[in-house]
Amino acid sequence: MEYNEFKESLIEKLKSITGDDIEVECHQVLKNNSINLDAIILKKEGISASPNFYIDQIYEKFKNDEEKSITKICYEIINVFDNNAKNPKFEGTSLKYEDVKDKIVMRLVSKDKNEKLLSECPNVDFLDLSIIFYVVVEYRKEDMACLRVNNEILKAWDIPLKKLYKRAFKNTQKMFKGKVVRINDMLKASFNKHPGCPIEDEELKALLNDEEINMFVITNENNINGACMFLYDEVRDKLKEIFDNSFYILPSSIHEVIAVKKDSNDKIDELLQIVREINRTVVDKEEFLSDNIYEYNVETDSYSLICE
Description:
Blueprint: H1 3-18, E1 23-31, E2 35-43, E3 53-54, H2 55-64, H3 70-86, H4 97-100, E4 104-110, H5 115-120, E5 124-126, E6 129-140, E7 143-148, H6 151-157, H7 161-175, E8 178-182, H8 183-192, H9 202-208, E9 215-220, H10 233-243, E10 247-251, E11 257-261, H11 268-281, E12 293-297, E13 302-306
Helix pairs in contact: 1-3
């Protein structure tokens, strides 16, 4: 079954099951990098907040599970909706500045690929990137609910953009502490989390244990939306200590970046090619950050953009 046929069948079946008690709507949600996703939302009298059910995600699960029928999927959606109605994440949440000021955080996104999104929310430029802001409504290690700060919310708060940025900068480091990890150590940790995938290849074993590899991953403790961590003094100072020199930041995704030491033998075009190849073959479109790289100059204590 093709996607559009699946979407129509899913909506039609949901409407037939829920009847007049629940209103079923399909709308598009603007996500990072100007990606619009089809989402179903259920509305019921007396319930002011409901989660988005993204049809593309549901469709992928449907394709990978031959035993999962559209009817079964509909009942799963209704069950999630009912549970959310009993324990709503957003309902009753105050958005007054004084109530949420310690929960405002920031993320890095591509400037070029988010023109519409950036027109709708306050943002701060950083080279070819933009910093946007969120309120963390609920935060647990395995789950986090956030609300993007748009222009209307900032207007209601009646605070300058500079104050918003300073507050988010402080909160983000406090809530999602940054970390610098040697890339092979991070890969080993990832393998260790999946004991069903033993490391049997001898070359891979040697690579993972090679202490000469001078590449470091910068992210946060959750490994989610951690690319902005390279902007922090503590992280920059750690990298200066590691490299004892200037260094490059290679954007990996919105979740992490990679730091490598600057060397007189570096071929910038090769570094750019690596970044762009990874972006085209590995990184999901929604998680893309940049095709360019950033140079930190230890003498000027500043970052500059390298795009060619």
